[in-house]
């Protein structure tokens, strides 16, 4: 080799090394350890507050309801891997609870203590139950590696919480949730007002789920039916357990959206020919009166619907207009002043090329960073918190904060003028900016993530932690915790 040829080769090698070294370093830095605590993860963000650094802490699994109170509603749910048979006869591989998917409906009255024993029959990766939308005590949230260890085959876990909030909720596994929820490890939970309060004549859940590409309502790949005579009032509790937003529309009667995400709306007007968009994870309660001599069809898609009474079998085409909850109903006090917030957070969603745990890809970012460098939003009990969610990622994200309900203040700078719009699952479309506010009134360590669950598994996740609450669990670890 001539000298100049050799020099050229060396220069080329050196240049390659200069280019590759930082890439190798970035790759290396993206690798997640076998097990780690989310408390050590990410960027602690105090929301403009100087932390109090109170040394006394309580572990998140100590945040329970008192043991000595008797349960009012009890259920045992046994999780298993299995085959789900839809009413068309088609079978899908998935997960069942007590042999079915969706699992049994749990109903409680406001104020009752609900106690659910989760048993794992044979799900090797382990299972948990998260009470989506219920602001349970910190230890009961069911997030594997955050609030408990995943329940191994042959083991069980007891969930106890007081059903303080009236409304429509659901439960689902929060271990490997993008697979287990997809596979049907879920079910509905309804909390009704304590006896004596006015109720609809007919009160029914319609839970939408996509089993292996098949749209279903209450586990049926077609329509479900409920009897309701003309003149009766009907409340239909729509639960969207899918990964995408679901437009719901009603044929045959004007209706009101009585509640969103388990909170009653204030003076909702009667509407018709509009679609109500229920985000992934979200719920919408629709109320109407069955018209004389007719039925009502509540459409979840062109092929899935709830037929009420003597309803038309054919669906209409979905209305082009969508109900805007920012201006629906009338305003009412929200109970605190968001203008006087103690903490202000930014949840910026974007996307960029990089490595996620060593895998190259075009990954979601939170405030410009990839997992594990995502925010740990830190609050103190009693704080009033605002959060600005800005989505520049090119796709919509249904954002879900555990343990709290947040009220929407504005979207794209336009203030909310309708009923207080309390959410736990908020559809944030590409290019949108939402400002929300909540009271930090439920100590714990809470996930705050996209409910298009594959997105969460791809890194669209952050956490909200209370000062003084410590994290005894590990992601990974002996239990193999993988909450996303
Ligand atoms: Cu319904 Cu963290 O989820
Ligand atoms: Cu998403």
UniProtKB/TrEMBL annotation:
One family name in Pfam for this protein: Cu-oxidase_3
Segment forming the signal sequence: none
PANTHER family: MULTI-COPPER OXIDASE
Record bears the keyword Oxidoreductase: yes
Annotated keywords: Metal-binding, Oxidoreductase
Keyword Metal-binding annotated: yes
CDD domains membership: CuRO_D2_2dMcoN_like
Residue intervals of the Plastocyanin-like domain: 80-194, 364-465
Name of the molecule in the record: Multicopper oxidase family protein
